[in-house]
Amino acid sequence: MEETEQKVGMLGSGSWATAMIKMLGDNQKKKKVLWWIRKEEDLNYVRTYKHNPTYLSAVELRIEPKNLFTDARDVIRQSDIVVLNTPSAYLKAALHGVGAEDFKGKLVVTAIKGIIPDENLIVGSYLSKVYGIPAENIVVIGGPCHAEEVSSEKLSYLTIAAKDTVKAERVASLLRNRYINTVLSTDVYGVEYGAVLKNIYALAGGICHGLGFGDNFMSVLVSNAIREMETCLTAIDPEADRDINASAYLGDLLVTAYSQFSRNRTFGHMIGKGYTVQSAQLEMNMVAEGYYASACIHNIIQQYDLELPICNMVYQILYNKQSANLEVNNLASKLS
């Protein structure tokens, strides 16, 4: 029986979106890939040279020139599966002019590891609230998976979470290839919130490193962080089938906290070195999702009356402009 061609639309042209275009291109399953690129000059460059001029520029991309668009609505309407892969702070702008009817009947995948800042909602919840997308049609992609390593074809693992594992497998089968392994999960909220939290913890690790703390302290920080994450995820969704030591939680936390490619660790390191939030944001060419996530998780801490001292430390430094040195030393007395 002939395999049915699936149409996959990618919204976003940053490093992670570019890496996923490469994954899709290197997967042998029959499909049509459509790509929304915000800047017309970048689109024209990709069309001509098969490379993204701004992110992962050395990577050759297998995509048909006719399948590149600057109108997100065109991509969504023509796709069976829509992958949202912009920074969380830019998702609203990317979907400007898109209506609920455009998403009707689509499987919508969020590869965004962040919070919609002024909504204080994870992406899945935002999609349900604003566009009426049923929860069963939302799929979440988790790590651990840095775009830079994917682009150089280093063996990596993705966690694909959906309420229906058949739908999770439908997405996984399009991404899986010789250097990408996939794990299926039904813990949709846990995988998405876990991705948000690990960015905050990586930012905390960067702050500590910037202040001169070493690997011994970092290991204690991370071991406390995974326990904090479990506390938070259990409060949000206590009934989920979840192993906090799985790669989507502990694995993603470790790579984000320690890797040279982690933008959240880099952002935190700059804060620890004395940069203001604004100056650190200006110097970085990429968005550190942990900054926006910190405010949202602070609200969750208050809502559920949780004790999450690492998250609280990051919030106090970033939003209340407290001394990083004083806050970390105060935190150190609470770690075990």
From TrEMBL:
Entries under InterPro entries matching the protein: 6-PGluconate_DH-like_C_sf (IPR008927), 6PGD_dom2 (IPR013328), G3P_DH_NAD-dep (IPR006168), G3P_DH_NAD-dep_C (IPR006109), G3P_DH_NAD-dep_N (IPR011128), NAD(P)-bd_dom_sf (IPR036291)
Catalytic activity: sn-glycerol 3-phosphate + NADP(+) = dihydroxyacetone phosphate + NADPH + H(+)
Alphabetic keyword roster: Lipid biosynthesis, Lipid metabolism, NAD, Oxidoreductase, Phospholipid biosynthesis, Phospholipid metabolism
Glycerol-3-phosphate dehydrogenase NAD-dependent N-terminal domain mapped to chain residues: 7-165
EC number: 1.1.1.94
Gene3D superfamilies reported in the protein's UniProt record: N-(1-d-carboxylethyl)-l-norvaline Dehydrogenase, domain 2, NAD(P)-binding Rossmann-like Domain
Superkingdom of the organism of origin: Bacteria
First-tier enzyme category under EC: oxidoreductase
Domain Glycerol-3-phosphate dehydrogenase NAD-dependent C-terminal: 187-325
Pfam families: NAD_Gly3P_dh_C, NAD_Gly3P_dh_N
Family listed: Belongs to the NAD-dependent glycerol-3-phosphate dehydrogenase family.
Name under which the protein is recorded: Glycerol-3-phosphate dehydrogenase
Organism in which the protein naturally occurs: Sphingobacterium griseoflavum
Gene: gpsA
